[in-house]
């Protein structure tokens, strides 16, 4: 594993962004969450991702959140910044402000959404980002949100053509596509799971880790599952995997990050306030989560 990628192997956490009742950013709870996941043994943090409701934050809030996370982390673990979108030129302009990236270790950049570019457009989008970026880039394929899939062929082409494109967060749910990437990728290119409940099988196929939602709430067991699987201790990894699968399923039953914020509220880490258009989980999911987490915590 190269120096560019050793900081993003294992378990990363797609950090939730806590809000107060008045919809302002709850920095006290954000600090509590950061310390909780680091104490739980995760390898790195991802700030301003989808789970952090980044699309509902203004520019000033984003800057303050990143600065706060970096200060709270205090170099204990690497920090990855979510920086993507469907306006390529805007992302490129952001990347030119290199002073903003002094304490950031990599960039996670989601494939363009809404525009629905073809594969050539996706390639050119990432080519422009690669040429502008001062940091390693993790591609992010999540067709359920973007309405377009980055094919294995395009991912492999990007991995081979640009040395600073070092990994793919794969959340397509397509195991055949993931295996094709793993089989044909360059040796130092990482495949990272973007689906919590598919992490164990993806690790078995040769993935290097995960960027997790559930690890916000249960960092100790989830990161240990990843470590044990990477070491080849399948039985122990499987035990931890199945310990969390029912909870993980419910976290996504009524939308993310509504589910994980409900779980964090139940655990007393932060309140479950969201910004519109997102709303809290329904009462049935809430009750199920309370029951499952209560049983889990005993």
Write structural notes for this entry.
- The chain has 298 residues and is α/β, with parallel strands linked by helices.
- The chain has a single domain, classed as Aldolase class I (TIM Barrel).
- Helices cover 46% and strands 12% of the residues.
- It is built from 12 helices and 8 strands.
- An 8-stranded parallel β-barrel has the order 1-2-3-4-5-6-7-8, surrounded by 6 helices.
- Strand 2, helix 2 (59-73) and strand 3 (79-82) form a beta-alpha-beta unit.
- Helix 8 (199-205) packs parallel to helix 9 (219-231).
- The mean pLDDT is 96.
Question: Which key phrases capture this entry?
Answer:
TIM Barrel, alpha/beta, 46% helix, 298 residues, 8 strands, single chain, 12 helices
User: Class by helix and strand content?
Assistant: alpha/beta
Distance between the termini: 39 Å
Mean pLDDT: 96
Note the beta-strand portion: 5-15%
Strand order of the largest sheet: 1-2-3-4-5-6-7-8
Order of helices and strands: EHEHEHEHEHHEHEHEHHHH
Sheet with most strands:
8 strands, parallel, barrel
Count the strands? 8
Task: Catalogue the unreliable spans.
Answer: none
| Integer count of domains | 1
Radius of gyration: 18 Å
Q: Helical segment tally?
A: 12
Report the CATH C-level class: Alpha Beta
